[in-house]
């Protein structure tokens, strides 16, 4: 199988499995797991934040941040295609009691500008309106096609939000993919009040994400992690793989990006397929197939018959490159797509 559904399908490397077997562990609920503590220190250092917390999933990291930055009855502002809004089971309303004020960016890449956010911000309002409590950004943007927000754009949004006393949370599930374009993860998240990133996607760890921010915020986050059932015990076994993911995997993400560009360039030449291949910057390729005479579901099902997995989204198909996908796999995928669509 060539599995292009997501970079979440990556399996731990031999080096990770070995480190997991040999990991020093302790009870992390007591803060006594040396491998988890090391991972948290390293992540905080790399991001230049005061503290970090290992959480089981990106969703838990995001939702703890939403909960801590807001109070029930607040609104959070997020781009209409954002993960926190669409793919986290309604958790902002279920857990934090907040409303979502979604904003559709004019940009195809789903990156909000400050002007777009400002038009939706509610501060100093008449008593009946719902106040804005938080702005959520996503970098890279999954359903914006792996698009990247620069450190300058992020910084501008954060500074303007802070002038209004609004915090900013960054869903940086794939921030290392953004950083592979040249800016450091510390710069990309510098002015954000909190940031979450995943060890388990393109970085290849089997499980885990990190939530980062000020020390007091992370102390509170630890309470909420436990409250949500995310206090794990000898979890250094997972943190050991996370350490390798953090230190080794970022170096090779450019390979996934080259493969994604090869894929995008190839699908752009297929009759009826619509994609702006120039816009593919990282490891996510989304292309529209509405003019091919087949539905996305039909094409995905034919791909599956040929041992290739992808995900249909409305009239589009999403394919994600990662370290279990080679250049030859991309060439084979393009060949099979040509056959299906000829
Ligand atoms: C942008 C983004 N944020 C958050 C998440 C959630 O991560 P998890 O599946 O670990 O909850 C994902 C998962 O795909 C994602 O793509």
Quick tags:
about 350 residues; Aspartate Aminotransferase, domain 1; Aspartate Aminotransferase, domain 2; 2 domains; seven-stranded mixed beta sheet; three-stranded antiparallel beta sheet; about 15% strand
The CATH superfamily label of the largest domain reads Type I PLP-dependent aspartate aminotransferase-like (Major domain)
Mean pLDDT: 97
Beta-strand residue percentage: 15-25%
- Write down the oligomeric state: single chain
With strands numbered from the N-terminus, the spatial order across the biggest sheet is 2-8-7-6-5-3-4
* CA(first)-CA(last) distance: 22 Å
Provide a compact summary of the structure.
With 342 residues, the chain is of the alpha/beta class. It has helices at residues 14-22, 34-47, 58-69, 83-86, 91-96, 114-118, 151-163, 175-179, 185-188, 215-227, 236-248, 253-268, 296-305, 327-341, and strands at residues 2-3, 51-55, 75-79, 99-103, 132-138, 168-171, 194-198, 209-213, 284-288, 308-309, 311-313, 316-320.
What is the fold's blueprint, element by element?
Elements lengths: L1 E2 L10 H9 L11 H14 L3 E5 L2 H12 L5 E5 L3 H4 L4 H6 L2 E5 L10 H5 L13 E7 L12 H13 L4 E4 L3 H5 L5 H4 L5 E5 L10 E5 L1 H13 L8 H13 L4 H16 L15 E5 L7 H10 L2 E2 L1 E3 L2 E5 L6 H15 L1
Helix pairs in contact: 1-11, 2-11, 3-10, 12-14
Bound molecules: pyridoxal-5'-phosphate.
């Amino acid at each position: 199988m060539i599995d292009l559904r997501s970079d979440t399908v990556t399996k731990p490397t031999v080096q990770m499995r070995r480190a997991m077997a040999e990991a020093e562990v302790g009870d992390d609920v007591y803060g006594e797991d040396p491998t988890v503590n090391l991972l948290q220190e390293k992540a905080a250092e790399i991001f230049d934040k005061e503290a970090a917390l290992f959480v089981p999933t990106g969703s838990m990291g995001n939702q703890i941040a939403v909960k801590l930055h807001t109070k029930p009855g607040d609104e959070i502002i997020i781009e209409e295609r954002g993960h926190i809004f669409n793919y986290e089971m309604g958790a902002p309303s279920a857990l934090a009691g907040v409303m979502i004020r979604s904003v559709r960016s004019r940009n195809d890449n789903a990156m909000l500008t400050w002007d777009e956010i400002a038009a939706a911000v509610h501060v100093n309002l008449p008593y009946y309106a719902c106040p804005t409590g938080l702005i959520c950004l996503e970098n890279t943007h999954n359903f914006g096609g792996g698009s990247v927000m620069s450190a300058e754009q992020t910084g501008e949004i954060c500074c303007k939000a802070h002038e209004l006393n609004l915090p900013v949370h960054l869903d940086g599930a794939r921030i290392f993919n953004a950083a592979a374009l040249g800016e450091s993860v510390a710069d990309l998240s510098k002015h954000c009040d909190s940031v979450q990133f995943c060890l388990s996607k393109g970085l290849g760890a089997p499980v885990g994400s990190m939530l980062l921010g000020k020390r007091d915020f992370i102390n509170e986050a630890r309470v909420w992690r436990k409250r949500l059932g995310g206090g794990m015990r000898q979890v250094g076994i997972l943190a050991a793989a996370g350490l390798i993911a953090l230190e080794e995997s970022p170096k090779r993400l450019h390979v996934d990006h080259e493969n994604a560009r090869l894929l995008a360039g190839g699908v752009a030449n297929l009759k009826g397929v619509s994609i702006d291949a120039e816009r593919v910057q990282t490891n996510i390729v989304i292309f529209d197939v509405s003019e091919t005479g087949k539905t996305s579901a039909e094409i995905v099902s034919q791909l599956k018959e040929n041992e290739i997995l992808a995900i249909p989204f409305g009239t589009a198909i999403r394919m994600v490159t990662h370290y279990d996908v080679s250049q030859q796999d991309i060439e084979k995928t393009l060949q099979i797509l040509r056959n299906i669509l000829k």
